[in-house]
From TrEMBL:
Gene3D superfamilies: 3.30.70.20. GO terms for molecular function: electron transfer activity; iron ion binding; iron-sulfur cluster binding. Keywords: Electron transport, Iron, Iron-sulfur, Metal-binding, Transport. This is Ferredoxin. Ferredoxins are iron-sulfur proteins that transfer electrons in a wide variety of metabolic reactions. The keyword Ribosomal protein does not apply. The keyword Electron transport applies. InterPro entries: 3Fe4S_ferredoxin, Fe-S_cluster_ET.
């Protein structure tokens, strides 16, 4: 599964980092970035949780048709 953070709408709350620190990190500009190109199957539930809990809804997943 691919995961993407839309930098245009990320507000830098950091909830995703608290949920999945091995996948997300806070960039120098204060917004979340993805550190891996592909999420391992065993981490998919954790990533889905991060996407659901993102207040800005800035995280999209590879099973979302808008992710390329």
């Amino acid at each position: 599964m691919k995961v993407c953070v839309n930098a245009d709408i990320c507000a830098g709350f950091g909830l995703c980092i608290g949920i999945a620190p091995e996948v997300f990190e806070l960039h120098d500009d204060g917004y979340a970035v993805v550190m891996v190109s592909e999420v391992q199957p065993e981490d998919e539930d954790m990533i889905r949780s991060a996407a659901r809990q993102c207040p800005a809804q800035a995280i999209t997943l590879g099973d979302d048709p808008t992710v390329s």
